[in-house]
Amino acid sequence: MSCDQADESLTRQDTLGKPARCFTRWKTSVAAVCAVLMVACAVAALATPAQAGESYAMTAGEGRTYGWHCEQTVFQQTLGDRIEHRTIIDWDLDLLCREVLPDRIRLSLTVLRVQASHQSPGTRSRIDTGADREPDPGKDPVLGHLAVFHHATIGLELDPATGRVLAASGGERLVAAALAHLRAKLQGEPSAILAERTRAAYADPALARMWTRILERPPAGAGSATAALTESWELDGGVVRGAVDRRWSGAAYTLALPAGVRSLPVTISSDPALPVTGSIESVTGDGVVRPLTGGWPGGMSQSLGFRLVLDASTQPVTQEHRLTVDFAPRPLR
Predict the structure, then answer these.
(1) pLDDT at residue 34 in the model
(2) Please, what's the b/e burial string for 211-221 (b: 16 or more CB within 10 A of its CB; e: otherwise)?
(3) Long-range Cβ pairs for the range 231-236 (8 Å, 24+)
């Protein structure tokens, strides 16, 4: 998910005049669509697949560290030009088991460090929240908003049998920090649409959905490679409407549009003065869930590709998206 492009483009929407807003909303789509799809859709990895039916088994007071690698490349075609945007974000995370109950496990997740880089025509940015001599990462014009996650903690209530996150907490602190960062950057209040999307992205329900996609176990009905299971997976987030098919084969799966469906509708902006709508086409993805390690997450890998076609005023835009995610344990602390 390219959070940096959402922050940069929507900030320009606030600070530039009307002619710039159409272009920046195209850029916003990079983040808005990926927020819905990136964590939700998945990937092939050279790893031993997990066994369906495995349940989490943790002990209160124990913890593990994890790495979460996110990479996004976007090729944008407009007015005859082909532009490439590339963003890489690496998260160091601490996962602590706080309490084990009969029907759930209460976890605390703390961000220990964020390292990120972004490259596009005329722009090169890099931040590292854990580097002693690094310039203030919060002041980076493109990636600075990621600094609000440094040492942030959220609570997760995990269903041990399915890996679904039943509830999340701490989102209100992330929302407050993100909005404060925007106010400092803009030297004023952010636009209503930016404030609304910031609240939606970091709210507790959004955090629960995101971490469900990372921690969920293969469904019990997935069976073996010879007994595939297909689920209809509804996309949400207020940007993309519709569902994709996720076809499980053991602990591996593929993603595609349902048979007979060529595209899903997208609405980036419903402002009558500057509407930005379009569609997602050619969705391809696959993934794998790795075995538990001592009752703790063994990790997962995922990748996704799709074409985003936008119609904004008189300037159509086509974007080719390539996304990869890997979540894996680090050495025991």
Answers:
(1) 45
(2) bbbbbbbbbee
(3) 232/258, 233/40, 235/36, 235/37, 235/40, 235/264, 236/36, 236/209
**Alpha carbon distances (Å) from 309 to 94, 120, 205, 238, 284:** 38, 20, 28, 17, 16
Helices (H), 151-249: 171-186, 192-202, 204-215
DSSP H or E run through 28:
helix 18-37
| Single-letter amino acid code for the residue at 255 | L
- Under 8 Å between Cβ of 116 and 68: no
The stretch 97-103 carries a mean pLDDT of 97
Task: Report which residue type is found at 210.
Answer: M
* DSSP letters for 245-311: EEEEETTEEEEEPPTT--EEEEEEE--TTS-EEEEEEEEEEEEEEPPPBTTB---EEEEEEEEEEEE
Task: Tell me what pLDDT residue 225 has.
Answer: 52
